[in-house]
């Protein structure tokens, strides 16, 4: 009950002899905007407290505790949700995903199947439908979704570009492979990009060639990035509108998965992506607190130097803690991926072993940014407040990235708060495992894809060594890399508990990696990541308690409602609390 008063008697005075009334004000209890009752509410505080009720006012947690006490905060204007035993979690954080790229229809008009025979008539028929459906008023035909093995397993006398030439001969075609680390192009795309027999490989990329030295139409890593980006230039109004519509589509799916804070892992400024995000901020359509990771281009513009790129990145820094959109991270690639033989390794690849195609003797992958260059960027950008988000997959890529951060720490010894992280981390030399904790580097793992589950094979117990790193006391986060992997955090939590020797020890550890520890990555742990009093009321209501259901059922968890700052941003059909 609100506004109680107490009447007390006091002796003395008065002609009638009656004691004068003294009104003692009751303690002020603020009416809440939202009250949740009779649920299982996991606060994810240090004690991992579970309560039955929560009260919210002005977008922040006002009270947590028992339902009887919570009713004191209910007024006529209060929205009351009777949970009837449902579970509430802090809003989930995904600190590595690609929503604009996932949602934009510009690159999605030619959707490919990684299982189809690319030499079949059915595939040729599919390709012929792509050009007329291309959106964005661009001369290119774009698509995605094939597997690199479809091209590396072709007969030796068939070049990948020949397959595309047969179906779309007159327009440049660029098809992004399912991992985004290679691009399949036709002869016209090679011509437009100026790639021919004597064209050198770009930094961080490989032009796959036939025995005569001619480009085959398969471009690995940055070689493909450079060509793919040509299709998006210049960023016209038509393109920007389609990107914006795609971003709104992606934000809706983020909300329906219970995610309230995100980090976009790669913002291509040359394509105008930053402007699209700014529009969403300006128009109030953001439904997740967002940190942008600006892409550090490994290949500079013709008249640009590293100093110029660093200065440009510094000019874009924007880190208002209360803003829905912050520009406070920079995304670097140290290396590529194992599937392409481009992950940077300490020992050479074996042509007959891990490789889908032949590489030169003593091949150890590649670097987008080598150690020295990466150290320079991190050292200069961290002084302005930027945190580095470094893609490092191979054991050499991991070591060199840690070395670069260590050099920045040495160069800027007076800087006490840095939040750099490595992401993916598929293989780590045992000597480097403790360095994450020693250097204060966050280890960000993606476990939401089926490919991360154990399979028979030598050394597979150390693939993505999340438990080894966790056991050193290093801070870890879990994220999706959507749309490469599933978006649902509950898939990631389940997989984190089912990885044999590399499983996290508990649901608590996995949940913290998607909440409070991920909030640390975003420099928002004082505002989000747990449902402690005074923090932002970002929360998610789900249909089962992930702490009590069998581990192999956690991925089936269904989000019923997502709340951002006390306001509902997603409500499942049929859920009417």
Q: In words, what does this structure look like?
A:
The protein contains 17 helices and 26 strands. With 577 residues, it is α/β, with parallel strands linked by helices. The chain has three domains: 5-85, Urease, subunit C, domain 1; 107-230, Diaminopimelate Epimerase, Chain A, domain 1, CATH 3.10.310; 235-334 and 369-564, TIM Barrel (Alpha-Beta Barrel). It has an eight-stranded parallel beta sheet with strand order 10-17-18-19-20-21-22-23. The chain has a six-stranded mixed beta sheet with strand order 5-4-9-24-25-26, with helices on one face. Strands 11-12-13-14-16-15 form a six-stranded mixed beta sheet. It is globular and about 100 Å long. Residues 1-17 and 451-460 have low confidence and may be disordered.
Query: How many domains would you count in the coordinates?
Result: 3
State the end-to-end CA separation: 22 Å
Tally the beta strands.
Answer: 26
What is the tally of helical segments? 17
Radius of gyration, CA atoms, in whole angstroms: 27 Å
Strand order of the largest sheet: 10-17-18-19-20-21-22-23
CATH level-two architecture of the largest domain: Alpha-Beta Barrel
Average the pLDDT over all residues and give the rounded result.
Answer: 91
Provide the CATH topology of the largest domain. Answer: TIM Barrel
Helix content: 25-40%
What class would the helix/strand composition place it in?
A: alpha/beta
**CATH homology group of the largest domain:** Metal-dependent hydrolases
- What general outline do the C-alpha atoms trace? globular
Tell me the strand percentage band.
15-25%
Poorly predicted ranges: 1-17, 451-460
What CATH first level of the largest domain would be assigned? Alpha Beta
């Amino acid at each position: 009950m609100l506004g109680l008063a107490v009447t007390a008697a006091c002796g003395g005075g008065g002609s009638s002899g009656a004691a004068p009334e003294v009104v003692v004000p009751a303690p002020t209890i603020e009416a809440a905007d939202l009250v949740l009752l009779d649920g299982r509410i996991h606060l994810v505080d240090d004690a991992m407290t579970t309560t039955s009720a929560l009260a919210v006012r002005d977008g922040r947690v006002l009270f947590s505790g028992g339902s009887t006490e919570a009713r004191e905060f209910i007024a006529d204007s209060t929205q009351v949700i009777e949970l009837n035993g449902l579970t509430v979690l802090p809003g989930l954080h995904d600190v590595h995903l690609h929503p604009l790229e996932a949602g934009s229809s510009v690159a999605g008009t030619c959707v490919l199947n990684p299982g189809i025979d690319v030499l079949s008539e059915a595939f040729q028929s599919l390709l012929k439908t792509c050009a007329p459906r291309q959106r964005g008023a661009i001369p290119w035909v774009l698509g995605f979704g094939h597997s690199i093995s479809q091209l590396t397993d072709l007969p030796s006398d068939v070049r990948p570009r020949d397959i595309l030439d047969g179906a779309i001969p007159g327009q440049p075609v660029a098809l992004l492979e399912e991992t985004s680390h290679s691009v399949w192009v036709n002869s016209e795309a090679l011509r437009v990009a100026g790639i021919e027999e004597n064209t050198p490989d770009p930094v961080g990329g490989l032009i796959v060639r036939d025995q005569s030295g001619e480009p085959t139409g398969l471009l690995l890593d940055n070689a493909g990035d450079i060509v793919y980006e040509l299709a998006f230039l210049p960023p016209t109004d038509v393109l920007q509108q389609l990107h914006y519509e795609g971003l709104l589509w992606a934000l809706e799916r983020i909300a329906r998965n219970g995610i309230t804070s995100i980090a976009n892992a790669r913002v291509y400024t040359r394509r105008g992506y930053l402007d699209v995000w700014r529009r969403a901020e300006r128009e109030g359509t953001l439904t997740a607190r967002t940190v942008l990771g600006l892409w550090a281009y490994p290949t500079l513009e013709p008249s640009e130097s590293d100093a110029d790129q660093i200065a440009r990145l510094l000019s874009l820094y924007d880190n208002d803690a209360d803003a829905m959109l912050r520009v406070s991270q920079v995304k670097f690639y140290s290396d590529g991926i194992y599937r392409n033989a481009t992950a940077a390794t300490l020992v050479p690849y074996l042509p007959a072993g891990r490789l889908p195609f032949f590489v030169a003797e003593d091949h150890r992958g590649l670097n987008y940014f080598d150690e020295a260059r990466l150290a320079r960027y991190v050292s200069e950008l961290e002084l302005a407040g930027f945190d580095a988000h470094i893609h490092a997959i191979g054991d050499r890529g991991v070591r060199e990235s840690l070395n670069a951060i260590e050099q920045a720490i040495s160069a800027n010894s007076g800087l006490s708060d840095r939040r750099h992280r490595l992401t993916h981390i598929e293989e780590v030399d045992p000597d480097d495992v403790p360095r994450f904790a020693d250097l204060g580097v966050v280890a960000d793992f993606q476990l939401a894809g089926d490919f991360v589950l154990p399979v028979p094979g030598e050394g597979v117990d150390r693939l993505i060594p999340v438990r080894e790193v966790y056991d050193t006391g290093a801070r870890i986060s879990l994220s999706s890399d959507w749309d490469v992997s599933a978006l649902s955090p509950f898939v990631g939590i389940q997989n984190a508990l089912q990885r044999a020797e590399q499983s996290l020890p508990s649901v608590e550890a996995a949940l913290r990696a998607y909440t409070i520890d991920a909030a640390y990555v975003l420099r928002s742990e004082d505002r989000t990541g747990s449902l402690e009093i005074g923090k932002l009321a970002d929360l998610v209501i789900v249909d089962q308690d992930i702490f009590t259901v069998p581990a192999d059922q956690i991925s089936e968890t269904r989000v019923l409602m997502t709340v951002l700052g006390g306001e509902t941003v997603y409500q499942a059909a049929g859920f009417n609390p």
